[in-house]
User: Which sequence fits this backbone?
């Protein structure tokens, strides 16, 4: 994700959610990434991660959930996650809502845009005070908390064309969540989907600006 801000010096730290997590106030931005785990399994480490997410949200500091992280964030804050009967894999076209068009993370993507999906579960009910930003038909693909620098995205802007083809071929040992993944790997869609990386860039820009404001405000107290 840091490569999406080439003119900004960013230091990244990676943590295994099954091990000790950092203090919720320690970093400017926290990203909870994808996983082959399912929120519904209630693995002890995932339950602990949800507790961490709730504490992080309470601090008012930026947090982004991606795929599993998007689902875990929604569930941790009182939303619901269920199995998606058909699964979703490959490049799909998403549509912004009015909330999405107004959100800083989506200012540089069109009202409809292609991006990469890879999931078998989905958020079916949002937490209180959350707004849908993007959809794939009836599936919530992005949401944000009102008055918080917190967002969840179900899709994967970081997936490159090479990564997409390797996933479709089962290079990671996992079967695609849906059978039509190959049909979506067209040159046009693969190229178009690179625009969705702007979501990462613009979220980080806005989050870092927001956190700078929070830090200054707390210092003045």
Assistant:
């Amino acid at each position: 994700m840091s490569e999406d801000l080439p003119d900004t010096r960013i230091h990244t730290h990676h943590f295994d959610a099954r091990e000790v997590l950092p203090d919720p106030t320690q970093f400017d931005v926290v990203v909870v990434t994808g996983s082959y785990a399912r929120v519904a399994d209630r693995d002890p480490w995932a339950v602990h991660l949800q507790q961490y997410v709730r504490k992080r949200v309470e601090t008012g500091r930026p947090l982004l959930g991606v795929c599993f992280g998007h689902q875990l964030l929604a569930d941790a804050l009182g939303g619901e996650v269920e199995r998606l009967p058909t699964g979703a894999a490959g490049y799909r076209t998403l549509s912004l809502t009015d909330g999405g068009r107004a959100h800083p993370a989506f200012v540089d993507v069109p009202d409809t845009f292609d991006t990469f999906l890879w999931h078998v579960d989905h958020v079916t009910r949002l937490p209180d005070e959350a707004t849908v930003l993007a959809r794939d038909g009836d599936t919530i693909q992005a949401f944000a908390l009102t008055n918080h620098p917190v967002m969840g995205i179900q899709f994967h802007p970081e997936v490159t064309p090479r990564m997409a083809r390797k996933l479709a071929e089962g290079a990671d040992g996992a079967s695609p969540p849906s059978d039509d993944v190959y049909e979506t790997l067209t040159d046009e869609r693969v190229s178009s989907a690179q625009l969705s990386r702007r979501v990462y860039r613009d979220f980080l820009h806005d989050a870092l600006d927001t956190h700078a404001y929070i830090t200054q405000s707390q210092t003045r107290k």
